[in-house]
Amino acid sequence: FGMDTLHPAESIAKLRTQYGDFFDLYMFRITTLGSQDSILMAQKIVSFVTDTNFRNIANDIGKTFGDFSEEKEELTQAFKYYNYYFPDKPIPAIITLLSAFSYPIVCDSLNLGIGLDMYLGKDYRYYFTLEPPLPNYLRVQMEKQNVVCDAMKGWAMSDYQIDEASARVIDMMISEGRIVTFLEYVLPDEEDAKRLGFTQAQFEWCEKNEKLIWSFFVDNKLLFSADPNIMSKYTNDGPTTSAFPKESPGNIGKYIGWKIVSAYLKKHPKMELKQLMEEKDMMKIYQESGYKPAK
């Protein structure tokens, strides 16, 4: 844990120097160990790092990920692609952490934090002790092999996610789909299903039913709705999507958004990824895509 429990104040000062703003982000937002009262904060941190359960979890992270070198290599490669497409953007420092089951990925302007306790496998014993319990659709994604994809997705979303408060369904669909397209560029060898966060079976169901999905949104006049309830129904993760068969994935809107962005790029073959990601007008992408699913 890198913490001298006999001299917590000195350890805290060292950690603050080492991690800068990310230290406060970890203490106050990720774990809520932070406090304006320095003595209370030291007590809370010592209690955290000596807690038997958290020490067990830290050991399990070590068993699962070792020195994290495999994932680090994949992230280094992904950020080489990222640097090619976004030469003016900083490459973040990668920080692995124990998030106390709060955040898988957390970013600030210079750091990409990965909560490895959120990737210990769908049947990991501690996941079943959480209150409220973790639903199955979340646990199935909490696998080691999703770390790199989730990290790159989180980094892209920290820069390019649109404001949900002023968005309509079509805007959110395209914004989410655009993040999937970003992943195609920086993780070119990854499977489509994984970039979408779907199981292979859910992805294949979408591919077979693309026209049906699109017709549903058009026929029910949902595309231009700004109703938050409708938005969350079709653009939030879940076990499946309301009004669709159980084989469908949650967040089916992301799939259609990705297809719209793909159609837009076919119509604009010289468009660079940076230009696509910096486009603020989702409606323009939709209108210029000419999207029409095949029968």
In short:
This protein is mainly alpha-helical and 295 residues long. It is built from 15 helices and three strands. The radius of gyration is 21 Å and the shape is globular.
Verbal overview:
This protein is globular. Strand 2 (105-107) and strand 3 (111-115) form a beta hairpin. The model has no long low-confidence stretch (mean pLDDT 95). It is mainly α. The chain has a three-stranded mixed β-sheet with strand order 1-3-2, with helices on one face. It has helices at residues 8-19, 21-30, 38-50, 52-65, 69-85, 136-139, 147-160, 169-186, 192-196, 200-208, 210-219, 228-235, 252-267, 273-278, 282-289; strands at residues 93-97, 105-107, 111-115. Helix 5 runs parallel beside helix 7 (147-160), helix 8 (169-186) crosses helix 15 (282-289) and helix 13 packs across helix 15 (282-289).
